[in-house]
Write a structure and sequence with these properties.
Layout lengths: L1 H10 L2 E2 L5 E2 L7 H10 L9 E8 L5 E5 L4 E2 L6 H11 L7 E6 L3 E2 L2 E2 L3 E5 L7 H13 L4 E2 L3 E4 L14 H4 L22 E7 L9 E5 L6 E4 L2 E3 L8 E4 L5 E5 L1 E3 L5 E6 L3 H15 L3 E2 L5 E3 L7 E7 L3 H10 L3 H16 L4 H14 L21 E2 H10 L6 H6 L9 H4 L16 E7 L2 E9 L5 E9 L6 H13 L3
Parallel strand pairs: 8-10, 9-11, 10-20, 11-21, 14-17, 15-18
Antiparallel strand pairs: 1-2, 3-4, 3-26, 5-23, 6-9, 6-22, 7-8, 12-13, 12-19, 16-17, 24-25, 25-26
Length: 488
């Protein structure tokens, strides 16, 4: 009798203080529904809007739906659509290329014309890759360039930021500008950014010691910081002035204190990549002529290829992209899809490709608004039911294993396995079980992915919380745990 009562309560609409309905669509999952209904009564989400959708992975049947058709801001959960489209349109083995070309010949070790660095979107270029380019040129007998050193970023359009990026975000790596010619500071591949470190000086009263990685003359340091005695208060901040590459360091850093690091986005990253290439040329003994200039331009069609580099495959790139929720990777993939499908490396064409592919997967596009490929926009909208629809649909695709492997795994400490879930759900039954994409913006949080129940049934789920004023990831984790703990 008790079980029947629970099943009835779970199956019927339940109204809380916020007038939000909770409905279990399948009475076989009544206990799961009741568990989630109780979780959704938590004070953390009082006044917020929460969409929850759970489906059977095998059939796509909805087994729990709470505001599942309500359009909500998904934050980085929009990357699920971007990744699916990229794997289908570009393919798992797709690689970006970067080329070094010339419009003249080499005579007596001197390149008589211009040297071009042509970017084609690769977000993984490191300083060492520019060193390899320089070594390749040396091996071809080039000792001097009499012409200009020209960077070519025309593979994409010249729109650097996606719609709806806030000024307060533009200074930081997660909102870095997108260019066809760019560079990354390390193997996380946050393209278009540098790492700025502030170390305490050995002498009290002196400014902190600042390091920029990789070293580049494109950014300028305005060091207003001060070293204070050991045990003092650390107040140091590192920010870039809007519309410039002037990086301002202010505040105090105590002797013996920890290093402060910020990943700072570079204004016009094409010049950043070109500067690294120029430094590599000089370091490898290649001189630029007295009249040579370093500038941006377009590679002539008749230019001859001197050397090139192919990036890792998209299958490999999907790991840092999705595990670490790399916004820049999402946006460059959008532009690359626009270039490949429509011959135009723009957000307009890239988002069109994502929308068209999502439609082919069976998503109801009349309920979805896509303003960028990363989820940075607060105007993106998608219902939880459409995210679970996508997660069911992609299982039949040839690239599904790559897609699944790219998702963060709950509780696994290795960064490129656990990703953004490495510090969450670290105990049974979720650890190693829940594989899901996180999402976070101001007053937005989301988690969508896969979890296996105690009975061994794979379920797909999506939790999107909007207008929250408290930390709500524990709510998402509790729902995922309820799924992983469920037994009929």
């Amino acid at each position: 009798m008790v079980f029947i009562l629970i099943a009835v309560l779970a199956f019927l609409p339940f109204i809380n203080d916020n007038n939000q309905q909770k409905v279990v669509a399948n009475e076989d999952y009544a206990k799961l529904g009741n568990s989630i209904n109780l979780i959704l009564q938590n004070e953390r989400i009082k006044g917020a809007t929460t969409g929850v959708s759970i489906r059977k992975a095998t059939t796509g049947e909805i087994v729990y739906d709470h505001l599942g058709d309500t359009r909500l801001h998904p934050a980085s959960n929009i990357k699920l659509l971007t990744a699916a489209a990229a794997l289908e349109i570009l393919g798992e083995e797709y690689r970006f290329t970067t080329e070094v070309l010339s419009d003249s010949s080499v005579v007596g070790g001197v390149l008589q014309g211009n040297l071009y660095l042509k970017g084609k979107g690769d977000p993984t270029l490191l300083k060492k890759d520019f060193d390899v380019f320089a070594q390749d040129l040396v091996s071809k007998g080039i000792k001097k360039v009499n012409g200009n050193l020209i960077g070519d970023d025309t593979w994409y359009d010249n729109v650097r930021l996606s719609k709806d990026i806030n000024w307060t975000d533009e200074s930081y790596y997660y909102a870095a500008q997108v260019s066809a010619l760019t560079a990354s500071p390390n193997a996380d591949y946050d393209a278009g950014s540098v790492i700025v470190e502030a170390h305490a000086n050995s002498r009290v009263g002196e400014p902190a010691t600042i390091k920029v990685l990789p070293a580049t003359d494109v950014v300028k340091i305005d060091n207003r910081s001060k070293t204070v005695a050991a045990g003092g208060t650390k107040t140091i901040t590192i920010e870039r002035d809007h519309g410039t590459n002037n990086i301002v360091i202010e505040g105090t850093v105590p002797v013996g204190g920890t290093v402060t690091r910020e990943w700072i986005a570079v204004w016009e990253p094409s010049y950043y990549a070109l500067d690294l290439f120029e430094k590599s040329l000089i370091e490898h003994g290649i001189d630029l002529g007295d009249t040579s200039k370093v500038l941006m331009g377009k590679t002539p069609n008749e230019a001859q290829l001197l050397t090139s580099k192919s990036s890792m495959t998209l299958k490999e790139l999907s790991i840092p992209f999705m595990k670490l929720s790399n916004n820049g990777h999402a946006e460059v993939l959008a532009k690359e899809m626009g270039k490949v499908v429509y011959g135009e490396g723009s957000w307009a064409k890239g988002l069109q490709v994502i929308e068209e592919h999502s439609d082919r997967l069976g998503l109801n596009m009349s309920t979805i608004m896509i303003r960028d490929a990363s989820g940075m926009s607060h105007i993106n909208l998608i219902p939880a039911n459409e995210l679970t629809n996508l997660l069911v649909s992609v299982q039949k695709e040839s690239w599904y294993n790559t897609f699944l492997a790219s998702l963060p795994v709950a509780g696994i400490s290795e960064r490129f396995v656990g990703g953004t879930l490495r510090h969450r759900m670290k105990a049974e039954p979720t650890v190693g079980n829940v594989k899901a994409k996180t999402g976070s913006l101001t007053a937005v949080s989301a988690l969508s992915g896969y979890a296996t129940t105690k009975d061994g049934e794979l379920l797909v789920f999506s939790v999107i919380i909007n207008n929250d004023l408290a930390a709500v990831t524990p709510i998402e984790d509790q729902i995922a745990t309820a799924i992983a703990s469920y037994s009929k």
